[in-house]
Amino acid sequence: xxxxxxxxxxxxxxxxxxxxxxxxxxxxxxxxxxxxxxxxxxxxxxxxxxxxxxxxxxxxxxxxxxxxxxxxxxxxxxxxxxxxxxxxxxxxxxxxxxxxxxxxxxxxxxxxxxxxxxxxxxxxxxxxxxxxxxxxxxxxxxxxxxxxxxxxxxxxxxxxxxxxxxxxxxxxxxxxxxxxxxxxxxxxxxxxxxxxxxxxxxxxxxxxxxxxxxxxxxxxxxxxxxxxxxxxxxxxxxxxxxxxxxxxxxxxxxxxxxxxxxxxxxxxxxxxxxxxxxxxxxxxxxxxxxxxxxxxxxxxxxxxxxxxxxxxxxxxxxxxxxxxxxxxx
Length: 329
Known about the structure:
Layout: H1 28-41, E1 46-49, E2 55-60, E3 68-72, E4 75-81, E5 83-88, E6 91-95, E7 99-103, E8 107-115, E9 122-128, H2 131-141, E10 155-159, H3 162-173, H4 178-197, H5 202-207, H6 214-227, H7 235-241, H8 246-257, H9 261-279, H10 284-290, H11 296-307, H12 311-321
Antiparallel strand pairs: 1-2, 2-9, 3-8, 4-7, 4-9, 5-6, 5-8, 7-10
Helix pairs in contact: 1-3, 2-4, 3-4, 6-8, 7-8, 9-10
């Protein structure tokens, strides 16, 4: 199922400067060097952190049979091989070699690899986006002011281009030597960000670095909820924190995260309880109380709704599969 956000690829967005080259969709020939470098960096399935900060590789040799839950940081994912699907609230986002996934706020999402084979694994490059650096580069790309933005969702799709793929190849190639990495990797990262800013979704990428943008206001609220997820939700306090009325805050929060503040908090609580049971060995009652639940029965119902199984069975399956959910911080 394709995401409704695919329509974001058209409409009144900023386009490349007049007279500049028209971005080209990457061909298989252009994707092959990126795939080879990613395979070298990720010799087995899983997520691999590379030597340069904020650069990661994900490899999967077969499609997922179960959703994998995790926290997505502000980042862009460039696919060299295969295809993946992620879920945020009611929205579904599918991306592959022709489309990149961009995330502007740290959000809990679930994902599944939908196209991968042992001889042709899914290979994705994840590049974390640094808001202050995005702001610096956006000022250079848009010296006359940022373009208007119609959509404010925290997750969206952008067209992959040969230029971005080639910059990603240079980024990975620079990591073969520490001196080259120190000198060349920052330039390759900047080039990727600049090309994103010059793309049809450039206005949305630029919002990542603007402290008073819809995205960054919600990001501040998200950070507060993550740090106090076990406490009662106070929407009025959150709205005051980001200088919005409660109604405007609720509207903007849902626009960015696809869920309400209460649903977002519930999601964080359930994910942390899952981690506590799996890694810390806590029982259901203790884990549920520790993340803020008063009723164990309510916790069990909501846990099953999110993860598809009752807590005890879910944890048993995770242990069989050797999975370990990440902490919230």
